[in-house]
């Protein structure tokens, strides 16, 4: 069963330290077909349904150039997740793994990432396939897929360091 907010047998939750504000701003919201975590894919697939990255003002001009790339990396805030479980039992079988060895949405800072396929741009919206989040999930960032991206700025000394 997909996790809602329950603590399973063997899992360990902690008292979270007070939040330190990282100063995030949500740049938009993600429109998807899924309204229940029980139905949302565990990982997006590049032949999955078209989803819309709706960009808010004043960030809309930042879309410029995105269509140069076929694949994008999308970062989003899994806003309905628990954040306090450090040992998790994905199979709900009392066997646990550490949160940092999982891609579970349940994590101290519930950031999701997906590599998505660009379908097109419609006004303030970027259409993509490959997401796995609920409708209206807050959008944190969009970058070109690193496999397609070559830095545009001149290299720096560290780029040539190998040891
Ligand atoms: N692809 C991302 C990653 O690897 O970082 C996210 C993977 S996570 C396993 C995807 C699951 O997160 C979905 O199946 C759903 O159960 C859950 N989820 C999706 N949107 C969410 C949201 N807004 N808040 C909390 N959980 C969400």
Automatic annotation (TrEMBL):
One of its GO terms (molecular function) is methyltransferase activity. GO terms for biological process: methylation. Residues 24-154 form the TsaA-like domain. Keywords: Methyltransferase, S-adenosyl-L-methionine, Transferase. Pfam families: TrmO_N (PF01980). It comes from the Bacteria. PANTHER family: TRNA (ADENINE(37)-N6)-METHYLTRANSFERASE (PTHR12818:SF0). Belongs to the tRNA methyltransferase O family. This is tRNA-Thr(GGU) m(6)t(6)A37 methyltransferase TsaA. It comes from Bradyrhizobium shewense.
């Amino acid at each position: 069963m997909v996790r809602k907010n329950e603590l399973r047998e063997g899992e360990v939750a902690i008292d979270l330290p007070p939040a330190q504000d990282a100063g995030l701003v949500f740049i938009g919201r993600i429109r998807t077909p899924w309204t229940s975590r029980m139905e949302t894919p565990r990982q997006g697939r590049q032949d999955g349904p078209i989803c819309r990255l709706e960009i808010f003002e004043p960030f809309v001009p930042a879309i410029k150039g995105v269509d140069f790339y076929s694949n994008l990396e999308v970062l989003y805030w899994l806003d309905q997740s628990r954040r306090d479980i450090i040992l998790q039992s994905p199979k709900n079988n009392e066997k646990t793994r550490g949160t940092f060895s999982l891609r579970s949405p349940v994590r101290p800072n519930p950031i999701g990432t997906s590599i998505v396929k660009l379908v097109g741009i419609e006004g303030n919206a970027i259409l993509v396939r490959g997401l796995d989040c609920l409708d209206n999930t807050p959008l944190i960032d969009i970058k070109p897929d690193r496999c397609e991206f070559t830095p545009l700025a001149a290299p720096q000394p560290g780029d040539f360091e190998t040891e």
